[in-house]
Design a protein that fits this description.
Layout lengths: L2 H11 L7 E10 L2 E11 L4 E5 L6 H8 L6 E7 L2 E2 L5 H7 L1 E4 L11 H7 L14 H5 L16 H13 L5 E5 L7 H16 L4 E5 L3 H7 L2 E6 L2 E7 L5 H8 L2
Parallel strand pairs: 3-8, 3-9, 6-7, 7-8
Antiparallel strand pairs: 1-2, 1-4, 4-5, 9-10
Length: about 250
């Protein structure tokens, strides 16, 4: 699908709704090196989008730039109708963007409960109560509330990282390689949780993932990235799977 046709399909498929996230001509630099080149894409309310590509293509850099963690950027980012290009990370979190980084980055010397409470720091209220739906999504966390995060298994830490991003009730969830290093049974649980987040609660999802089948099963729409640029996009159900896979193989 060419870019113009894919964009038209993307817009039409959302029944005229306005984008939740709109990125225009995003460039991201590391020093003198241009890593992400002229990225433009949209995510609509309640939509699950996957950003595909081999390692080193700029996917993680893109998510970090969207979260405001990388400041050497040009272009425009609009979220929920508000320009957030110059927002620092904490204001992007307050605006409704949740982020689960690659490698999880939980706090290993804090308890599970304390990790979850940190996720509430962006909520503009004095009340700090972990919402019950977190335990409905990830029931394995409740018995371990007083256990240190570093004592959890890799799969449990990933569940904790996703739960920490969800406690503040984000409108958009950024997920960077959520299946990395996770055993198959936990991957299934994470897949089910992400599907519920999107379909039942209407949270939009931007997923960076190497596990093709996982991404294909969750995403409504995909973008394929190579050398810092988008080279293909379209509805996941209509993708040329063989062509996409050829760009994912090493």
């Amino acid at each position: 699908m060419n870019t113009e046709a894919a964009t038209a399909t993307q817009n039409k498929s959302q029944d005229g709704s306005k984008p939740l996230l709109e990125v225009s001509d995003l460039n991201v630099y590391y020093g003198q090196s241009l890593i992400v080149r002229g990225l433009s894409f949209k995510i609509f309310p309640g939509q699950a989008v996957c950003l595909l590509g081999r390692n080193g293509m700029g996917k993680t850099t893109t998510l970090k730039a969207l979260m405001g963690l990388l400041r050497d950027c040009t272009g425009n980012i609009t979220f929920d109708g508000i320009p957030i290009t110059h927002y620092p990370p904490h204001l992007r979190a307050c605006a409704g963007i949740g982020y689960v980084p690659q490698g999880r980055e939980i706090f290993p010397h804090l308890t599970v409960e304390e990790n979850l409470l940190i996720g509430l720091e962006s909520v503009p209220t004095k009340e700090r109560v972990i919402p019950e739906f977190v335990y409905e999504l990830f029931p394995a966390l409740r018995p371990f509330l007083k256990r240190l995060g570093g004592d959890l298994s890799g799969g449990q830490q990933q569940q904790l990282a996703i739960a920490r991003a969800l406690v503040a009730g984000p409108k958009l969830l950024l997920l960077d390689e959520p299946t990395e290093g996770i055993q198959p049974s936990i991957i299934i649980e994470i897949e089910e949780a992400i599907s519920r987040i999107q379909k039942e609660w209407g949270v939009s999802v931007l997923l960076v993932e190497q596990y093709f089948e996982f991404a294909q099963s969750l995403a409504d729409y995909f973008y394929l990235m190579e050398n810092g640029s988008l080279i293909m996009e379209g509805l996941t159900g209509q993708m040329d799977e063989e062509k996409v896979r050829s760009h994912l193989s090493v």
